[in-house]
Design brief:
Blueprint (H helix, E strand, L loop, with lengths): L8 E6 L2 E6 L5 E4 L2 E4 L10 E3 L2 E4 L3 H8 L9 H10 L7 E5 L5 H10 L4 E5 L3 H13 L6 E4 L6 H4 L5 E4 L7 H8 L5 E6 L2 H11 L3 E7 L6 E2 L6 E2 L9 E7 L3
Parallel strand pairs: 7-8, 7-10, 8-9, 10-11
Antiparallel strand pairs: 1-2, 1-6, 3-4, 5-6, 11-15, 12-15, 13-14
The structure holds S-adenosylmethionine.
């Protein structure tokens, strides 16, 4: 059975809050109900209750929501998990990403394409690039990610035939033609756009390169889990972003 070791990340659930922490034997986690000594966890299995706390092994969703340093707006798992499968990502695929940002979406792609696939990701800002690199390294996602601190690929990237591409930058329009050149025939591309104006502009730019175009957004409503009073949470995030998907036309 896998047990908790020094250096592991854990997800602590206390009432309705979640914390992602690293187990360091000389350190403690202080909360309103008391103090948890990390050394008391070492050798115990994940998924245990200690006083008011529940201790779990963090999932990818929790690493993104509670673990990474956010240098930019990130794409939340409710969107990025959908994006990854909409782009048909699986073991062995090669994906091209523009706008690494904090690396949150890069992690999702990395987890999908596995050891035989690769994520090629571009970030133009050096400070942001460095943070993304640290985030990916910290949680073990750097092994299949090739990072570039620039706007568009050097020659080695333009020779690759990609299975999919994804763009999360403010001005995605110039990428349309460039991405078209390096995608396999019929391969999917996805864009995340915060405003409807950008969607309209992008729709115009996609012709004649991409077809089978879809625009959507994902609304997620959580529920209170009290079985005596089961009902939706009072508040929800109404809008995160528009997602646009299309497929390469062989023109
Ligand atoms: C919203 S963030 C991306 C967030 C990322 N998807 C995540 O989930 O962590 C957009 C990023 O695109 C970068 N960017 C903007 N224009 C770019 C370009 N032309 N080439 C590469 N990166 C660009 C910005 O510096 C910024 O870090």
């Amino acid at each position: 059975m896998e047990t908790i070791k020094e250096g592991d990340f854990i997800l602590i659930r206390f009432k309705d809050k979640r914390y992602l922490k690293k187990v360091e034997k000389d350190k403690n986690f202080s909360y309103k109900g008391g103090v948890l000594r990390y050394k008391d966890l070492i050798g115990k299995p994940f998924g245990i209750i200690i006083g008011d706390l529940q201790i779990f092994k963090p999932t990818l969703e929790e690493i993104i929501l509670y673990g990474i340093k956010r240098e930019t707006q990130i794409i939340y798992p409710k969107d990025s998990f959908f994006i990854a499968k909409k782009l048909n990502l699986s073991e062995g695929k090669k994906i091209l990403e523009f706008g690494t940002g904090s690396g949150a979406t890069t992690m999702v792609f990395s987890s999908c394409v596995g050891a035989t696939g690769k994520v090629y990701t571009f970030e133009k800002e050096e400070r942001i690039f460095k943070t993304a690199r640290k985030n990916l390294e910290k949680f073990g996602f750097l092994y299949n990610v090739v990072m570039f601190n620039e706007e568009f690929g050097p020659l080695e990237v333009s020779k690759i035939e990609f299975d999919a591409a994804f763009v999360d930058v403010r001005e995605p329009y110039p990428f349309v033609e460039k991405i078209h050149k390096v995608l396999k025939p019929s391969a999917p591309v996805g864009f995340l756009l915060p405003t409807a104006n950008q969607v309209v502009e992008l729709l115009k730019s996609l012709k004649p390169y991409f077809g089978d175009i879809e625009v959507l957004e994902i609304l997620t409503r959580y529920y209170k889990v009290n079985p005596e009073r089961f009902r939706p949470e009072d508040t929800m995030v109404a809008h995160t972003a528009y997602l646009l998907f299309a497929k390469k036309l062989s023109i």
